[in-house]
Design brief:
About 20% of the residues lie in helices and about 35% in strands. With about 160 residues, the protein is of the alpha/beta class. It has one domain: 6-pyruvoyl tetrahydropterin synthase/QueD (Tetrahydropterin Synthase, Chain A), CATH 3.30.479. Strands 4-5-3-1-2-6-7 form a seven-stranded mixed β-sheet. The chain is globular, with a radius of gyration of 17 Å. The mean pLDDT is about 95.
Amino acid sequence: MATKVSITRLNIQYAHRFLGFEGEAQYLHGHTGTLTIEVEGEVDESNGFVYPCNSIKRIAWDYLKDFDHALILQENDPLLPEVLKVYEEQGIRNGAPSNTMTGLPIDNELAKAYPECRLVVVKKVATCENLIELFYSLLKDKLNIRKLTFTSGDNAASVTYK
């Protein structure tokens, strides 16, 4: 029997900048990003799915929540300590009552999330290509990922894993 693929998409709103980049992207700006996840496998005859799309979304969203309405900065960005200082002064560094969307902990070789203050600190520039690498590192042990595509504004990147 041929291998099949289930495909689902998730949207995240985020702000970032490209540290050291010459051009408009060096400034703090926001995007709507769309992560497309393709999960490979055999069709389950009992339900007709390779993997139910709602289950893919639930598993991925457990981590992607930390990126939604978040600021993504590189660990060496001089804005980072200033943002944390302002958050501390405003009393929101450790969370605010309105911040109810926190995802699972993220702390690996590519990023550390601070969901209590809607901040993700990354090791590499937050390009589509590097964000795919990060998303894959978070989801590879949870889903049989065949392909990830991340679109942000007019930019996109895609990686096939199998």
